[in-house]
Amino acid sequence: MRDPRDRRLPLIAGPCSMVMFGVTGDLARKKLLPAIYDLTNRGLLPPSFGLVGFGRRDWSDEDFAQYVHDSVEAHARTPFSEAVFEQLRGGLRFVTGEFDDAAAFEELTRVVGELDRTRGTGGNHAFYLSIPPGAFPQVCEQLANSGLNTSRDGSWRRVVIEKPFGHDLESARELNDVVEKVFRPEDVFRIDHYLGKETVQNILALRFANQMFEPIWNANYVDHVQITMAEDIGIGSRAGFYDGIGTARDVVQNHLLQLLALTAMEEPVSFEASDLRAEKEKVLAAVTLPEELGAHTARGQYVGGLQGGEHVRGYLEEDGIPADSQTETFAAIRLDIATRRWAGVPFYLRAGKRLGRRVTEIAVILKRAPFLPFRSTDAADLGQNAIVIRVQPDEGVTMRFGSKVPGTQMEVRDVTMDFAYGSSFTEESPEAYERLILDMLLGDPPLFPRQREVELSWKILDPITAFWAEQLPPTPYRSGTWGPDTAHEMLARDGRAWRRP
């Protein structure tokens, strides 16, 4: 019997199951299935939880159980336990079929009903669409035709969709129309896994749980904000998805604009989903684009070079990439926010592949002190104060400020003060998909963007990508560097420079 003081109690999902489409893909194998196991291992899923895989492979339930076993043993974050897996195994089922196979969905209906009877899942079922967006209409139509989207007697049915939520505003609206014809808007959960990261959520704690930051979190004290998402890898095996999509659509439209919204939003009335989303939407609606997109955006494509001491191929040399591809692997843009808090404060966003190292961070760069009572030589090495939120990989917060150098002279130099999750807490942070899957099963939506956020983000990005397609081909940059020269020139025009993470 659980201790009533156990703080996990409100976070334990009730009776339910999940049907996973695309269960044999890399995302399911490396992230989703391990996350389900880890939640089971932490005692956050009910003992009767059911998991149904749907795919083309001619598998029995036992074959599927072995596949899940191998996936979680290889990729789970918590220690693997055969006893825990046996609990999960009892609810594992597999349905073989194509998305256009009505008979397969009839079998899926039977299997879901069997879980209700034998496992006590209570008619509560989530459908995880880990599939290309082009397959959504077919799967949603089949779910509707079979009645699987309809809940009864107080139970629930939910659908989970992965980004990308379209490739522009028009396609995002079309995609939403498809999904919301079958599921109610409140039953649609759009997953942006960045929002499940502890350090992203810590933006809210840093700002609103402390008195020291919020008074300076405005245009009176902030010079500019830099949001960086750098990867040191290339596209790998993602050529089929990535080419024609590019960095801006892949991560700027969702991850980086969500980080911007959390950084710039006003304090919500509460952390209820409606209040949190309302403030994020206000920020996105207030974003303005620079008048000269050619001067205040940059677009790049990596070429071969040295990275980590090894020679790596350029983008056009990657398998499956056309020799004349104009897809960008680096994107940088300046955005402004037309509110009293942020008037005159530029937000610089950049993301790219094959950059100097893997890092995601938000750097709030403060204005210089209006007066320094030191000789110019005493403070020659003094830069601007900064508050840096490190999202990954070294999760934490760094503050940069000036301090006197020990000695007989008054010499002031920049120093840093660090908070690191790894050394400050004994608890291990849950993986982003653990948090998001559990929140979805609990029906707790604050970390899931709704359609209005998606549309506002595309309204920001669409004019930029349209301009790029017509007038701004990608500029080559060597692998292992920090992007094309045009990105550095973009900030230099404003009298600023990119921070070196």
UniProtKB/TrEMBL annotation:
Keywords, A to Z, come to: Carbohydrate metabolism, Glucose metabolism, NADP, Oxidoreductase
Would I find Membrane among this entry's keywords? no
**Pathway note:** Carbohydrate degradation; pentose phosphate pathway; D-ribulose 5-phosphate from D-glucose 6-phosphate (oxidative stage): step 1/3
State the GO CC annotations. cytosol
- The UniProt record lists the EC number as 1.1.1.49
**By its UniProt entry, which PROSITE patterns does this protein fall under?**
G6P_DEHYDROGENASE
Q: Which domain of life is it from?
A: Bacteria
Q: Which Gene3D superfamilies match?
A: Dihydrodipicolinate Reductase, domain 2, NAD(P)-binding Rossmann-like Domain
What residues does the Glucose-6-phosphate dehydrogenase C-terminal domain cover?
A: 204-499
InterPro entries the UniProt entry points to: G6P_DH, G6P_DH_AS, G6P_DH_C, G6P_DH_NAD-bd, NAD(P)-bd_dom_sf
Question: Where is NADP(+) bound in this sequence?
Answer: R56, E98, F99, K163
Q: Which SUPFAM superfamilies match?
A: Glyceraldehyde-3-phosphate dehydrogenase-like, C-terminal domain, NAD(P)-binding Rossmann-fold domains
Listed under GO biological process in this entry are: glucose metabolic process; pentose-phosphate shunt, oxidative branch
Cite the Glucose-6-phosphate dehydrogenase NAD-binding domain residue spans from the record: 19-202
What function does the entry list?
Catalyzes the oxidation of glucose 6-phosphate to 6-phosphogluconolactone.
Q: Which family does it belong to?
A: Belongs to the glucose-6-phosphate dehydrogenase family.
State the name under which the record lists this protein: Glucose-6-phosphate 1-dehydrogenase
In its UniProt entry, the species of origin is given as Brachybacterium phenoliresistens
